[in-house]
Amino acid sequence: MASSAVLTLMLLAASLLLPWSSLAALWGDDRQLAWTVLAQLRLPRALLALTYGAMLGASGAAIQALFANPLASPDLTGTTSGAALGAVVSAYTLAFASPLALSVGAVAGALGALVLLLALAGPRAETATLLLAGLAISALAGALTTLALALAPSPFAFYDAYEWLMGSLADRSLDQALFALIPSIAATALLLRQVPALDSLTFGEDAAAAMGHDVRGTRLWVVTLSAVGVGACVAICGAIGFIGLVAPVFARRLTRGHAGRALLPAAVIGAALLLAADLAVRTAPLGRTLPIGVVTAILGAPFFLWLVARMRWRLS
Amino acid sequence: MMALARGRSLRTERRLQPTDLEIGSGSLTALVGPNGSGKTSLLHALAGVPPAAGSVEVGGTPIHGQPPVLRQRLVGLLTADRHVAWPIAGRDLLAFGTAQQGNCEPVVAALALEPLLDGRVDRLSSGERARLLLGRLLASDPQLLLLDEPLANLDPYWQLVVMDMLRERVASRQRSVVLAVHDLTTAVRYADRLLLISEGAIVWDGRPTDLQASGEADRVFGAEWSGADWRLNPTADRRSSP
C-alpha cells in the first residue's frame, strides 16, 4: 500500500515536470512561460489523471465487492457509456454545454445505467448475466450516443464528440478540472465508509445483514456514489476504460483477497495507472498524441481476457 | 428457565406467518419441518435479516439498529449458503469481524482448523469450508447462535464433534443455540426443545421425546416417525395430495 502510494506520488511529479528540460526552465530566462505551462496545462492534467484514476479504481473495487464479482467495473457495467450518453445528450441535444450541465447529464446517465443493470441482472448476478447485461447497456448507450450526435444541429458534433469520447486529459482548465475533482473526492471519501459492509458481503447478503450491515443502503450508496464520481469525470475527460477493472485486481493482492478494504489501495493504484498511461501518451515518440482511452483499452482489454481465461481454468 | 431472546411478530411476506417466540437462556432448540416450511425464514427473522420483519431482543437488547460489532456479540447466523465470494485466507475468514483474537485458539483446536488457516478458502472442500465458517461464528461467541443446517457437508465424525461443542456452549456458557435441521434423529438426540414448522407457522413446540406420541410429525411430514426412524406412510403420501 505504502509503496503504491509512493509510486503514485513519483508519477505525479513526473507528470508535472517531464520533460526534465522544463524543470530547468522554471528557473531559466523564460520562467514566466514555464510556470504558466506548469500551472495551466500540466497541473490540471495531472490532477485530472490522479482523481479520475482514483475514482475509477475506488468505484471499480466497490462495484466488484457489491456484485461479488471480479469482472464488474464501471466500464463493463455500462456506467461510463451511460455517463457519456448523458453528457452528449446534455451538450448536443439540449444544447447545455457548460461543465455543470455536462456533469449533471453524465451523472444522470451513469445512474440510469447502474439502476438498469441492477434491475436487469439483480444484485447477486452470475458473471455471465452481469457481463451480458452490461454489454447490452453499453451497446444501447453507445447507439443512443451515436443517434444523439447524428441528430445534433451542429455539423461538427461528430468530430467534436469523437475526440472527447475517446477520453482525453489534455487542454482542460483548472476550473474544468475542479468539476471532476470535487465530486470524485467526495464520492471516494463517502465510498470508504462502506468498506466494512462491502467486506462482509464476502459471506453473502444474508450473512452481511445478520452481522448488522444495511445491505440495501450499501447498494444504494455504492451505485449513487459511483455514478456521481465516474459521471463527473466522464463529463470532463470522456470515457476511459479498464482502469476500474484492473486496479481492484492488484489492490486485492495487497489486502489478501478482502474486497471491501481493497477500495483505498484500488484508488491509489487507479491513480498510478492513469498517470502512467497519460505519461506514456505524452512522451510516446509517435509525432502526435493518442487519445488516452485508446491506450488504457489496448493495455486493459488483454488483461480482461486473461481474467476471463483464469476464471475458466478455475471452474474447469 | 430464563428467556434469553424474544422475537415478536416475526414474519416474511412469502413464507413465515407472524410468530412470537421466546428462546431460553442456555438451551438448544431444533427447528424441524418439511422443505419450504419456513425454517430458514424463521432463523433469518431471528437474526434480523431482511426481508423478514418483526423485532428481536437478545438479553433485553434489541438487535436492530445495533452497530455491527455489538450486534455480532448478541447474535450470529450461519447461513445455509456456505459460499465465500473472495479467495481470502482461512486465517482471515476465521478472524473476520472477531474483535478478540484470543477466542480463536480453542475453536481452532476443537475443529482441527490449523491446516486450513494458511490456504485460500476457495481451494478448500465444502466440508472444510463449512468447519471454518462454523469456527468463525463460535470464535465470535454470540449469545444467540442461529445455525442453518450446521451439519451439512460434514462427515459423521465432525457432526458428532460439532454437536458436542454446541451442547458444551449451552451447558457451560449459558449460550442459546437454535438450529434448523432436516435430520429428526439429530434433533431428538441433542435438542432441549423442538419446534415443528409447517407452512410458515410453529405447529408443535415441546420436548423432543414427546414428539412421537403427539403424532404431529407423521401428519406434517406425511411419513411415519418411530422416534428413531422414518417409514413412508401409504395412506398419507404427500405426492398424492394436491
Walkthrough of the structure:
Chain A has 316 residues and is mainly α. Chain A has a single domain (47-315), classed as ABC transporter involved in vitamin B12 uptake, BtuC, CATH 1.10.3470. Helix content of chain A is 76%, strand content 0%. Chain A contains 14 helices and no strands. Chain A is globular. By secondary structure, chain B is α/β, with parallel strands linked by helices. Chain B has helices at 39-47, 68-74, 90-95, 104-110, 126-140, 156-173, 184-190, 211-214, 216-221; strands at 3-11, 19-24, 28-32, 53-58, 61-62, 75-78, 144-148, 176-180, 193-198, 201-206, 223-225, 230-232. In chain B, a hairpin with a 2-residue loop joins strand 9 and strand 10 (201-206). The model of chain B has no long low-confidence stretch (mean pLDDT 88).
Largest sheet of chain A: none
Main β sheet profile of chain B: 6 strands, mixed
Rounded to the nearest angstrom, the distance between the terminal CA atoms of chain A is 33 Å
**Number of helical stretches of at least 4 residues of chain B:** 9
Low-confidence blocks of residues of chain B: none
Could you estimate the helical fraction of the residues of chain A in percent?
Answer: over 70%
**Which residue ranges of chain A are poorly predicted, with pLDDT under 50 across at least 5 consecutive positions?**
none
Order of helices and strands of chain B: EEEHEEHEHHHEHEHEEHHEE
Estimate the strand proportion of chain A: under 5%
Q: Shape of chain B from CA axes?
A: globular
Structural class of chain A: mainly alpha
Largest beta sheet: strand ordering of chain B: 6-7-8-3-9-10
CATH level 3 topology of chain A: ABC transporter involved in vitamin B12 uptake, BtuC
What value does the average pLDDT of chain B take? 88
Q: Name the CATH architecture of chain A.
A: Orthogonal Bundle
Radius of gyration of chain A: 19 Å
- Second CATH tier, the architecture of chain B: 3-Layer(aba) Sandwich
Given this structure, which CATH class of chain B is correct?
Answer: Alpha Beta
As a percent range, the share of helical residues of chain B equals: 25-40%
Membrane topology (chain A): Multi-pass membrane protein
Subcellular location (chain A): Cell membrane
Transmembrane segments (chain A): 48-69, 100-121, 128-152, 220-250, 262-284, 290-309
GO molecular function, one term (chain A): transmembrane transporter activity
